[in-house]
Amino acid sequence: MRKPIIAGNWKMNKTPAEAKELVLALAETVKDADCDVVVCVPATNFAAVKEAAEGSNIKLGAQNVHFAASGAYTGELSADMLKACGVEYVVIGHSERRQYFGETDKTVNLRTKAAVAAGLVPIICVGEMKDEREAGYTDILVEYQTLMALHGLTEDEIKNVVIAYEPVWAIGTGLTATDEQANETIGVIRKAIERKYGKEVADTVRIQYGGSMNPKNVKGLMAQPEIDGGLIGGASLKAPDFTAVVMYNK
Q1: 96 belongs to the catalytic site
Q2: So where are the chain's domains?
Q3: Residue 151 catalytic?
Q4: Which of 78, 155, 162, 169 is deepest in the core (most CB within 10 A)?
Q5: pTM
Q6: According to CATH, what is the number of the domain 5-246?
């Protein structure tokens, strides 16, 4: 059985004081969660979140990692830097990174390998645009993005990776894939992993849905057999909403 994982992606939100307040609230409300709980926060909030989450079941995540160990990469953070700050998870290849900052499938792969080598758990984002879905290319795209991201990793390393299927047309739009659509596409991703790395690996990898998952739709999505959690955007910024998602089965 794969343990569900619910991760909040705060994006570019919250000051350190606001971050501390939110995590202190969550530490009380999600303490009995049956899933892994992660908050992926801006780097300016690492220290505040680490302190506020001390002794709780909330894990600290980052929103990006560079593929080099060090060097002339202004504004970037290496995997070892993240580790030194107490980071355990890192989002890689989010559609906003691809759209606004030139992220490619190749750099996603390089960042993934750097994260894994440092002992971080990557949350690798894959997903299609609306016109790509309408043209019938969803399966081909998510298969390619997934396998390219995992290229060069060992089977044991892949077992510790998290994949987040995020249809780009559903991020921050209020639109959501139906429960069945999300489950079907995540099943496609799992089958692609199975063909390449075997059933044992595929059955171990946790695959989240991330596309406007919220308190209203979480139960239906999480009832699907292929969906192992969620990568939560807007709903992760308010304690009551994120709590409702994390505690979906209570």
Answers
A1: no
A2: 5-246
A3: no
A4: 162
A5: 0.97
A6: 3.20.20.70
